[in-house]
Amino acid sequence: MTFPINWVEVATSNPQASRDFFARLFGWSFQPSPMMPDYHIFNPGAGPMGAMHGYMQDGPRMTFYIYTPDIDAKLAEVEAAGGKIVTPKMFVGDAVGNIAHVADPNGNVFGLWDRDRFGLR
What we know:
Layout: E1 5-11, H1 15-26, E2 30-32, E3 39-42, E4 50-53, E5 61-67, H2 71-80, E6 84-93, E7 97-103, E8 109-113
Parallel strand pairs: 1-4, 5-8
Antiparallel strand pairs: 1-5, 2-3, 3-4, 6-7, 7-8
């Protein structure tokens, strides 16, 4: 089984300036989410899709989300491997599924996502 990266989030203090930067540099376009006005979806054309937003918690950051078919089992594996659960599993909605944030033993945070919305498995 593979565990692809299937979503990327960019949190920034100035979402418009960051969107303008990535649009100019790579030609990306951004579409606002109908459910969250400051959450803009982008599709880089290859690789995972993502979103850019201004919801700050601890400064600017980029988070990648890895697909797993069993998020509960993977959370247990994270802890068994010396990592930690940063944000416990939460249901985000039918269109998304469950997500959680975890950290490796060095504190690098990444996300787990259990719905293969984009057919990447």
